Amino acid sequence: MRAFPLAFSFAFALFVGAGSTLAAATEPAARAGYAIGRVTMEDGSPLSGDIQDVTININGVSEAGEKVHYSPAVKNGTYKQKLVKGQYSFGRSTVKVKFGEHTYLFVLVPKGSLWNKSQDAEDGLVQDFVWKLTGRAETYGAQPDPNNATHWHGMNIGMRFQTWRSDTNKAPGMLPEGSKLIFTLVPTSPSIDGRELKTITVERDWRPKGSPSYNDDLHDLPPANYDLSGVARLPDGSTKPLLLQGAGHYPKFFEKVSVVMGYDNILGGMWKQPIGWVVD
Fold it and tell me: How far apart are CA 215 and CA 265, in angstroms?
């Protein structure tokens, strides 16, 4: 085995050590007396979209026994807040994003498990947050409900079979057991974070006994505007178009409807838009 000169070995060790230091520097390090952290998208990339505001809430009690609250400015995806001596934890933190006519409020997801636990300012607090566009909401366990919009980060469309046709004033046709519902969503806008989206196809079971409903919602979609259409695929392989009725369509039904991301006027977040459907 060839031996390297001592000078080369020493220089190589310095190079490796420097590389390790640089890699470690990419992660925020705790700093005594400060709360620091980053706010990113789920994949670690910078926040994107028409960001209006980011709010980080830090609550605590000082050594003098006084309640303390901080809301540090987030600049270039990072924040730094000097703390008086005491115990602190992080509260509900949010991002406001403009999309269309409205500015939507989304709750940021804290990374790790220390965010809501009391921490000593002298140890330094490091807490990162992410803006999740889709996925199961962390507070709803292993079996979230596809028909409950609060169980998901993404956008939900409430798809409900109508037992009466307002356009013909009679009961609609019923599908045989074993039928499937195939919904197609064609994006008519980028996602709220500015990403271009592809067509989404969602399959749902038809439940003729209607318990708890005839079919589940279209849930956890990337927040955006869509053109929605669908067909029922019968057990024999044949298909029937679904006729849809959204907001402002009553009493008519259509084979394709526009779904615009709904705004919750009370909470400021997304509102689940209801869509009724029937078959001939």
Answer: 27
Phi, psi of 10 (to 5 degrees): -65, -40
pTM: 0.86
- Give the residue from 101, 131, 161 where a domain finishes: 131
Query: Which residues, including other chains, have CB under 8 Å from residue 263's CB and lie 6 or more apart?
Result: 101, 102, 104, 270, 271
- Is the domain of 161 the same as that of 270? yes
- Whole-angstrom Cα distance, residue 43 to residue 280? 45
Q: For residues 109 and 128, give the distance between their C-alpha atoms in angstroms, rounded to a whole number.
A: 9
Could you report the per-residue pLDDT of 177-236, keeping only the tens digit for each? 999 999 999 999 999 999 999 999 999 999 998 878 999 999 999 999 999 999 999 999
As for how many domains the chain has, the answer is 2
Both 157 and 273 in one domain: the answer is yes
CB 71 within 8 A of CB 94: no
Spatial distance between the Cα atoms of 39 and 54, rounded to a whole number of angstroms: 9
In angstroms, the CA 227 to CA 119 distance is 48
